[in-house]
């Protein structure tokens, strides 16, 4: 039985792995996708203390290498079943059948991008619709792109695209952005950016590839927007259903845990974006990872 099982190799999970290994715990990290989490899609991180301007990919890669160098084990597979207790130990089973027994568990499963839920969204994904401007923006060099959303991700995406596209629209459902003011100011300084405030994307246009979108205003009026690409950045949703037997979830699906990262089950901790919290940032994810790992390591030694 290992000391600490960590689910998720984003900032919270990898930081937890670093701290738990440095505390002398045996650690296995489970990750269903590539290591690094959401931040790998961020072109430039400007608010992580001490690392202004670092790219999300570079930052995530360094974090992964750091955890590996300290001896954390990695299993690249999705956890399908999570059960057990502090007294008897926890059992995690992955989709491909790996079984792991652990004294403590840190859930650091992050969040997933919200989809629009429109007809044609799946068919046009990869044919004009994308959820990652850094990954796919270069395909639309010199063309027109639209970004849907008003948070930091949407505004950062629009800034990035403004540097490579001829014209960028940013479509947001309210008359005020949710993103940090510094980012909004930077965005609005680009003269090839046009805001479409108080609009949502209500329809997808095109035959074999995207040619435009239908917009609906909050007053109910509609208009057509011609664009080669639509980058969707309308927020994130948790995917914690698999943990419902070992931790309480709130109505939105986040794992209920406070700043000490303790969940309703002794021995189970939640760190980063997957837990109930106000500020979902890289720095708070890293902080959670440290807090959860120190507590889990102590507990796994019987302390
Ligand atoms: P956010 O939840 O911050 O923003 C989502 C945006 O999408 C909001 O503007 C919201 O509108 C809008 N939205 C939500 N649902 C819908 C819908 N169904 N239809 C239309 N619009 C919708 O998500 P982000 O992905 O931007 O950011 C997630 C977290 O990561 C945040 O905490 C953010 O601060 C952080 N982040 C930080 C970065 C940085 O600091 N450099 C970079 C990127 C992300 P409304 O405003 O009306 O709610």
What does this structure look like?
- The protein has 7 helices and 17 strands.
- It is of the alpha/beta class and 303 residues long.
- The strands form 4 sheets. Strands 1, 2, 3, 4, 5, 6 and 17 form a 7-stranded mixed sheet that branches. A 5-stranded parallel sheet has the order 8-15-9-10-11, covered by helices on one side. The chain has a 3-stranded antiparallel sheet with strand order 12-13-14, with no helix packed on it.
- Helix 1 (11-22) runs parallel beside helix 2 and helix 1 runs parallel beside helix 7.
- The longest helix is centred in the C-terminal third of the chain and has 19 residues, at 282-300.
- The protein is elongated.
- The model has no long low-confidence stretch (mean pLDDT 96).
- The structure holds NADPH dihydro-nicotinamide-adenine-dinucleotide phosphate.
């Amino acid at each position: 039985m290992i000391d600490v099982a960590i689910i998720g190799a984003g900032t919270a999970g990898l930081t937890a792995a670093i701290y738990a290994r440095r505390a002398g715990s045996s650690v296995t990290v489970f990750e269903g996708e590539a290591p690094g989490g959401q931040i790998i899609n961020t072109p430039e991180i400007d608010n992580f203390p001490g690392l202004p301007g670092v790219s999300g990919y570079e930052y995530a890669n360094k974090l992964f290498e750091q955890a590996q160098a300290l001896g954390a084990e990695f299993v690249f597979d999705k956890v399908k079943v999570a059960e057990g207790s502090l007294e008897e130990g926890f059992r995690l089973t992955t989709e491909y059948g790996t079984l792991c027994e652990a004294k403590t568990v840190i859930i650091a499963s992050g969040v997933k991008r919200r989809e629009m839920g429109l007809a044609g969204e799946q068919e046009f994904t990869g044919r004009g619709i994308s959820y990652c401007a850094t990954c796919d923006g270069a395909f639309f060099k010199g063309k027109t792109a639209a970004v849907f959303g008003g948070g930091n991700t949407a505004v950062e995406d629009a800034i990035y695209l403004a540097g490579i596209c001829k014209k960028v629209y940013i479509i947001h459902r309210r008359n005020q952005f949710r993103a940090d003011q510094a980012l909004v100011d930077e965005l609005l300084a680009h003269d090839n950016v046009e805001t479409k405030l108080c609009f949502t994307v209500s329809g997808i246009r095109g035959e074999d590839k995207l040619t435009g979108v239908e917009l609906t205003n909050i007053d109910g009026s509609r208009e057509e927007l011609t664009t080669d690409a639509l980058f969707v950045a309308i927020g994130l949703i948790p995917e914690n259903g698999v943990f419902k037997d070992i931790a309480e979830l709130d109505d939105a699906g986040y794992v209920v845990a406070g700043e000490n990262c303790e969940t309703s089950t002794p021995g189970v901790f939640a760190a980063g974006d997957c837990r109930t919290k106000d500020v979902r940032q890289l720095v708070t994810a890293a902080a959670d990872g440290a807090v959860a790992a120190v507590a889990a390591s102590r507990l796994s030694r019987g302390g």
